[in-house]
Amino acid sequence: MKKILIIINLLCTWHVHAIEWDALDPQQQQTLAPFKAEWPQLSVQQKEKLAKGASRWQNLNKQQRALALNRLNQWKALSPAERKKVRKRYQSFQKMDPQQRKKLWQLHQRFKQLSPEQKQKLRKKYKQLTPAQKRKFKQRQLNRNKNRQR
User: Fold this and answer.
1) Which among 67, 76, 68, 145 has a CA at the least distance from the CA of 105?
2) In the chain, how many domains are there?
3) φ and ψ at 27, to 5 degrees?
4) Is residue 72 part of a domain?
5) DSSP letter at 60?
6) pLDDT for 97-123, tens place per residue?
């Protein structure tokens, strides 16, 4: 019985010491160098997330890395309130069913194709709507999407 408990304990806690700095490959260490001093204090989840991110980073080409750096810099430029708003929108997006996410992504892609003038015109028009009109507009869009899926 004692052996079984020890084995179960080992199986449940093996990952606690899974990612130590020296266990990272040299490329991961180079990518994660800014975190070296604080690495021992990071949680297992943080270490795993950073190690995964470093591995993904290594597999990106120059163009993809430039895009990622650009997005990181945009994120850093946001105020805490703006970051909170972005996180909230992301969580809402994650809660959508796959069809809704796909439709929203398609609309986003269409919006990106518009000229700057067209984008500005749409933004201005939307900002002029009352909260009730905005809710009605969003509901109409949802209903329209549901009808198209049938």
Assistant:
1) 145
2) 2
3) -65, -40
4) no
5) -
6) 898 889 889 989 999 999 999 999 999
